[in-house]
C-alpha cells in the first residue's frame, strides 16, 4: 500500500460547522442576536463566528441594512451548501444512535396544517419518537418562502404556486364548497349567479392557496364578489358564516364536521365542481435527512386513488 499523506496546507479546510451554523441561523433570523438565540450562543460569539467565516471565504455574505443582515449574492450562493452540510452533519451525529432524532421541520398551509397533517404527523412520530417536530402554519405564499429560505425541510401547499428553486410533488386533491348558515336565504335552494354575486362573502386573505382557488372558481364566473370579510383564520370564517352574516368557500375537509353537525349547510349551485391539487414542495438543493425522507414517503402513502 502506498503511503498516505495529509492534505497540503493549501487545501486544508478553513471553515467550521460552527461558523456555518451561525451563518445559516443569521440568514434565517436577519440579525446575529436572533442567530445567537437559535444556536444557543452569545451575540458576540455569533458575530465573531460570522466574521471569521467571511474572512475565511474572502467575501462578504450579507448586506448590512441598519441592524438587519440581508443575504447578498455570495450569501445566497453559499446558503444551500451550508444548509446541506449541516443536515448531513446532524445525520452523521446520530448515525450510530439507533434513532433518527434530527428535528422534522415542516411548513403547511392553514387548511393542510390544521386539518390534514396532525394525524399524519402523529402516526410518523410513533416510528420516530426521538425526533422533535416543528410545524409552521401559514398561507401558501409564506410556506413557499420558508422552504426557499431553508427554514423548513418540507412544505405543503394548495394551488399552483411555485418557485424556481423548489421541486413540487403533487399530493392529495380536495374540493371547494360554498357554505352558509342553516337559516341563510340561499341555504335551501339552488343559488343563481346573480344571488352569489350580490351576497356578502367571508374569504381567506390574498396569498392563501384557498383564496386563489376561490378566485379562479367563482370570481372568473361571477365577474365580481362582495368580499366583506378577509381573514387569515379558517375558524373565524366558519364562525362568521355560521352567524349568518356571509357566505364562505372552503375545502370540504375543513367544514366536514360542521356540515355533519348541521352548523353549516352546503349551498347548491349549477357551477362545475371545484377540485384542486395539493402538493409537497422541497428545495432543489436541500438534502433531506433520513427522518424527513421517511416523512415524505409516509405522506406519499396517503395518496388517494385517482378518480
Describe the protein's architecture and organization.
With 307 residues, the chain is α/β, with parallel strands linked by helices. It folds into 2 domains: 13-93, Orthogonal Bundle (Arc Repressor Mutant, subunit A); 103-307, D-Maltodextrin-Binding Protein, domain 2 (3-Layer(aba) Sandwich), CATH 3.40.190. It is built from 12 helices and 13 strands. It has helices spanning 17-29, 32-39, 43-57, 73-93, 110-115, 117-127, 140-148, 193-198, 209-222, 234-242, 252-261, 290-300; strands spanning 62-65, 68-71, 104-109, 133-138, 154-158, 166-180, 190-191, 200-204, 226-231, 247-251, 265-266, 268-269, 274-283. The strands form 3 sheets. Strands 3, 4, 5, 6, 8, 9, 10, 11 and 13 form a 9-stranded mixed sheet that branches. A two-stranded antiparallel sheet has the order 1-2. Strands 7-12 form a two-stranded parallel sheet. A hairpin with a 2-residue loop joins strand 1 (62-65) and strand 2 (68-71). Helix 1 packs across helix 3 (43-57) and helix 2 (32-39) packs across helix 3. The N and C termini lie far apart (62 Å). The model is unreliable at 1-11 (pLDDT under 50).
